[in-house]
Fold this sequence. Notes:
Layout: E1 6-10, E2 13-17, E3 48-53, E4 56-62, H1 68-76, E5 96-97, H2 110-123
Parallel strand pairs: 1-4
Antiparallel strand pairs: 1-2, 2-5, 3-4
Amino acid sequence: MTRRPDLVLLGDRIWYIPDGVYDLQCIARTRRGLRCRRPVESGQITGWTELRSTHGLITVYDLGGFEAATLRRWREQHCELHDTPDVVDFSAPEWEPFDPVRHAAMVTTLDEKIAEYTRQLREGATEEWQPWYPAPI
């Protein structure tokens, strides 16, 4: 499986994760002096949202509406086991503040989105399926 970067909306800030949401690993130091191997989140707790900016569209893993404790745990990059005030970190968190210029590959321009949607329509594969009813005679 190849890792790809993702964007995460934490509170009111967007963060860039180089290895993606599902491969985000806890950074706590274990009792043996090694890095914890557990993921920050063991399952999908929220969904993906598409946001519009002046640079184009971005898709984010939306943690914006969660309670402060969950946002802090994600920001500190700890699994639920290591969500304690006395935990010692093995390394620094992997987060970077999202910059639409530096992380331009994460931004889809409106022209690219329209081209993709047109291709999907042409191939008959769209995300939205609506029943078709013939026009009344």
